[in-house]
Write a structure and sequence with these properties.
Low-confidence stretches: 135-149
Distance between the termini: 5 Å
Structural class: alpha+beta
Helix content: 25-40%
CATH architecture of one domain: 2-Layer Sandwich
Number of helices: 10
Shape: globular
Mean pLDDT: 90
Bound molecules: adenosine-5'-triphosphate, magnesium ion
């Protein structure tokens, strides 16, 4: 499902995955062939500073120029792209409705959606999908009786803010591309996880720590049961280093990533800053996972997967594992893509994988799919 899909007719067209993050723009092109999914292109470019703030496009000219040069450098010919929204501009929520005819659903869902959306219903673009969570083939009659929901249906509702969607439409046009699908980060990452996990069934969580967003998504048998975004991320650390040492953004970034020539005092100070942010992220995640454990006591999370560049922050994985007592593994969305090692260094793909999850997930989308 998606917030916007401008595809028409039954013919599916492949899309280039374009992840416009606040720190970097990533692009992935995948070709579906008899050999499997082939990685055709992958590249990144820095996002101009402060051009994307809280998911909103603040500088169309600078960002579209960066996208144009990324496409040019990689020689990508396909102009149809899938992009995604995140943060406050989108809401994904599972609701329960009485079973009803398809024709009545649209109206009922709009009414129900009004309760959950902190904006006017006319300010958002709505999409929904009926989840087959109560598929009688999969659940025993006991479980069905427990939930008492044979005449209810679970509906996943997605709402994207129109003004933010309009910003993306304008941005993609300015980059001389066509916006085919607008997805949301959390679904794109989930799709990327599904093609790269050895056991995509069961209950697991995907934690994403980007530059300015911390996303938590818990999945049970392929369906998201809980998701939440908070405004945490690696930029918090970079900004704290900027103010502590009075240095510009780029220098603070490189200090954060273990910049050369730092004396022991500076290193200790940076480590202190990093540790304090990591502590906050872990406590936010632990809080959410405890909530999920209390709400869905039968769905014990067996593993945590990490995505996003800041999930590589020193100490984060170890600390998260210790606090939650759940094994934590980095996601590598390239794992099962066929990649020619003449063009793509396998070690680099493995290293950069967590940052590429959204773009890989978007590249799996086609024009006209639901
Ligand atoms: N090895 C690393 N160790 C620690 N932090 C890293 C590492 N590599 C990248 N980062 C940080 O990860 C962040 C970028 O991650 P990512 O590409 O996932 O963000 P984004 O998608 O651009 O941002 P958004 O949060 O808006 O989605 C930056 O803050 C960067 O400093
Ligand atoms: Mg991101």
């Amino acid at each position: 499902m998606s917030i916007l899909n401008v595809g028409s007719g039954s013919k599916k067209k492949s899309l280039v995955g374009l992840d416009i993050g606040s720190h970097s723009i990533k692009v992935v092109e995948i070709e579906h062939s008899k050999l499997g999914r082939i990685l055709r292109n992958f590249g990144m470019i820095a996002t101009p500073q402060d051009a994307i703030v809280e998911g909103s496009v603040k500088d169309v000219e600078a960002v579209s120029a960066a996208i144009r040069s990324l496409f040019k450098n990689l020689g990508i010919k396909n102009k149809n792209v899938a992009a995604s929204l995140s943060g406050y501009s989108v809401i994904a929520k599972k609701i329960v409705l009485d079973e009803m005819e398809e024709s009545e659903m649209e109206k009922a869902i709009r009414l129900e959606a009004e309760k959950y959306i902190p904006y006017g219903i006319n300010e958002v673009n709505l999409d929904y999908t009926v989840l087959n969570a109560q598929d009688p083939m999969e659940e025993s009659s006991d479980e069905k009786a427990d939930s008492g929901s044979s005449d209810k249906m679970d509906v996943l509702l997605v709402a994207g803010k129109n003004d933010v969607i309009d910003e993306y439409v304008e941005l993609i046009q300015a980059a001389n591309l066509n916006l085919g699908v607008v997805d949301i980060d959390v679904f794109a990452i989930q799709n990327a996880a599904e093609i790269s996990l050895d056991k995509p069934e069961g209950s697991y969580a995907i934690i994403t720590v980007g530059a300015s967003e911390l996303g938590i998504n818990t999945i049970h048998n392929g369906l998201s049961v809980f998701s939440r975004d908070s405004s945490y991320g690696g930029t918090q650390i970079t900004k704290a280093i900027m103010s502590e040492f009075d240095v510009p953004f780029e220098e603070a970034e490189s200090m954060k990533l273990g910049g050369v020539g730092l004396d022991d005092d500076k290193i200790a100070e940076i480590e202190k800053i990093i540790a304090s942010k990591v502590l906050k992220w872990v406590s936010e995640i632990k809080h959410a996972l405890d909530f999920v454990a209390n709400t869905y006591p039968d769905e014990t999370i067996e593993e945590i997967f990490l995505s996003g560049g800041s999930s590589e922050t020193p100490g984060f994985k170890r600390h998260l594992e210790k606090e939650t007592e759940i094994p934590v593994t980095g996601l590598n969305p390239f794992k099962y893509l066929v990649a020619n090692s003449k063009f793509f260094d396998p070690d680099y793909l493995q290293y950069i994988g967590p940052q590429a999850c959204v773009a890989v997930g978007l590249a799996l989308r086609s024009l006209g799919d639901k």
